[in-house]
Design goal:
Layout: H1 13-16, H2 21-27, E1 34-37, H3 44-54, E2 58-63, H4 69-84, E3 89-94, H5 101-112, E4 117-122, H6 126-129, H7 132-135, E5 139-142, H8 148-160, E6 168-169, H9 171-180, H10 185-198, E7 203-204, H11 206-213, H12 225-239, H13 243-255, H14 260-275, H15 281-296, H16 301-314, H17 320-335, H18 386-398
Parallel strand pairs: 1-4, 1-5, 2-3, 3-4, 6-7
Helix pairs in contact: 4-5, 8-9, 8-10, 9-10, 9-11, 10-11, 12-13, 13-16, 14-15, 14-16, 15-16
Length: about 400
């Protein structure tokens, strides 16, 4: 069912639209080295084969999981023989991110000299996983997850070409497979094939299709973009005071097998960065959830994580603590660090310290910052910290500030 021409290819209109650079290169049979970066089942391998066919080039396919430097040298040697005979070679290397630096470096001369046209495929961000030297010799194309309509086209094409034999597939079943395959055409087609083979009465209905697919596939790699994108979404949803969205992203991470300690650490950070003294209890809740993760572990610690996510979402928000330490550090970076005033130093080296406990309200008017920082204000309570703002104003008045 793999498309063999651009006309059959489904999806990636942003890369292959009429007049686009990549489409023109393919149509003119002049491929260039590239990295195809995108989710599983989005068409990376199919596109590589179409590119090779359009250029009338030999196609060498390898997976970086099973390929070492010896196999790469053998591919390059065969490509050099073809080059002498006037034919090009497209070297399709799946999961190129699995290659270490030395293995990637071994490709450089052949790519630079045009011995092979390299097409690397990866689900990982090539900016982090592919050597800069190799990236500079290739173009990176980011493929998008296929939409439900894209997958429907592929499923209906399979039926039209008799891939399901005499089985009758109901429309609801097709739409369910397209909607629940997470944009992975391979997953949808595989489930359709299984459903057709096991249809007891020659009919694939919604129940049979669901059984064949089993469940929604969650594309999530704890070391890749989805890891950072999902935690970023959780932070923004929680900061935005939406407990339902916060719980959704928490559930995605739990279902995908994310380390609960990672989630707990982010909760502790958010409690101070985005809530701070608007609700000091937030930090207590977050650190308690982190302790629960360590003491209880999964699956039971999910309840503590959920409790913390809800609390953090509904807590009043203030980033005053974050702004205060940022301002103080910027002040020190710009002006340097002065030694503390003599009267504040340890070991009795300085005299004249005015202990605030000797004064009414436990407040002294003595200057506590060095000369260069006297009068500087870093902490400015916002409207979510009105009680603290009033308290601070009273203290400053008492200290003559």
């Amino acid at each position: 069912m793999r498309p063999s021409t651009l006309e059959e290819f489904v999806g990636q209109e942003h890369l292959l639209g009429p007049g686009s650079a990549l489409r023109l290169a393919i149509e003119q049979g002049r491929p260039h080295s590239m990295i195809l970066y995108g989710p599983p089942g989005s068409g990376k391998t199919t596109l590589a084969r179409i590119i090779s066919s359009s250029a009338n080039a030999a196609l060498e396919e390898q997976s970086a999981v099973q390929t070492g430097r010896a196999e790469v040298r053998a591919v390059i040697a065969r490509a050099q023989e073809r080059r002498r005979a006037g034919r090009g070679t497209v070297f399709f290397l799946d999961e190129i991110h699995r290659f270490n630096k030395a293995q990637q470096d071994a490709l450089l001369p052949a790519v630079e000299e045009g011995v092979v046209t390299l097409i690397g495929a990866t689900t990982e961000n090539p900016s982090f996983e592919v050597n800069r030297a190799l990236l500079s010799r290739t173009r990176v194309y980011e493929l998008s997850e296929l939409t439900e309509q894209h997958v429907l086209v592929l499923l209906r094409r399979a039926l039209e070409r008799g891939e399901c034999g005499e089985a009758l597939v109901e429309e609801d079943a097709l739409r369910m497979l397209a909607a629940r395959c997470s944009g992975d055409a391979r997953t949808a087609l595989g489930a359709l094939e299984l459903a057709c083979k096991t249809a007891p009465a020659g009919t694939v209905d919604l129940t049979l299709a669901e059984d064949a697919l089993q469940r929604r596939i969650i594309h999530y790699d704890k070391k890749a973009d989805s890891h950072y994108d999902t935690i970023s979404a959780w932070i923004k949803a929680t900061r935005g005071s939406d407990p339902d969205a916060s719980l959704y992203y928490l559930a995605v991470m739990l279902e995908a097998g994310e380390d609960p300690r990672f989630m707990a650490r982010r909760m502790v950070i958010l409690a101070s960065e985005d809530i701070g003294n608007a609700d000091p209890g937030a930090l207590t809740i977050a650190t308690a959830a982190a302790a629960a993760v360590e003491h209880v572990g999964l699956p039971e610690c999910q309840f503590a994580l959920a409790q913390a996510a809800i609390y953090l979402s509904l807590a009043p928000k203030s980033d005053a603590a974050k702004r205060a330490i940022g301002a103080a550090r910027e002040f020190v970076r710009d002006r340097g660090a002065e030694p503390p005033p003599l009267q504040l130093r340890s070991g009795g080296r300085g005299k004249g310290y005015d202990n605030p406990h000797a004064h009414p309200g436990h407040v002294s008017s003595q200057e506590l910052a060095p000369d260069g920082a006297a009068g500087a204000r870093f902490y400015e309570p916002d409207e979510a910290e009105r009680q603290l703002a009033a308290q601070l104003a009273e203290i400053r008045r008492a200290r003559g500030r």
